[in-house]
Amino acid sequence: MVQQDDSAKTEHHHGPRHWFRRNPALNLAYRIGVGVVGGLVLIAGILMIPYPGPGWLVVFFGLAILATEFEWAGRVLKFAKRYYDAWVDWLKRQPLWLRLVVLAGTGLVVLATLYLLNVFSLVGGWFGVHEPWLESPIFGSRT
Q1: Mean pLDDT for all residues in the chain
Q2: Is-contact 63 87, C-beta < 8 A?
């Protein structure tokens, strides 16, 4: 019976990743790079969740990037996917009025964000509308 080397069971000996793993400094730099890129993608996805578009897809993509190097991220990815699927399934079973309430709530989050980022004042200015109530309390002009 031929005995296998333990490292052959746990690690692939081909591809660029193996080359990084052989050198501790390069391995650390690679892991830091994956952590930074995956973390930034994850944060961007989290910020995009309440808005129309691919927020959850970006969250899952960021977690998938992190999961290539960090076991905890793989567990979080499975957890988040399970609960996202459960939320979508639950929402599909709800009456139309409740789904519309959720949609309206999402719309209110989007409108509040646009207001706070001073988008209404900016667009109003394009059409010659300069009403004080359109200005953001955070980024509006201080005149």
Answers
A1: 84
A2: no
Distance CA 138, CA 107 (A): 20
Instruction: Please give the Cα distance from 55 to 33 (Å, whole number).
Output: 22
Q: Residue 71 and residue 6: Cα distance in Å, rounded?
A: 20
Instruction: Tell me the three state secondary structure of residue 23.
Output: coil
- At 136, the pLDDT band (50, 70, 90 cuts) reads confident
pLDDT at residue 5, rounded to an integer: 46
Length of the chain: 143
| 12 or 87, higher pLDDT | 87
* Region of 71 on the Ramachandran plot (φ > 0 left; ψ -120 to 50 alpha; else beta): alpha
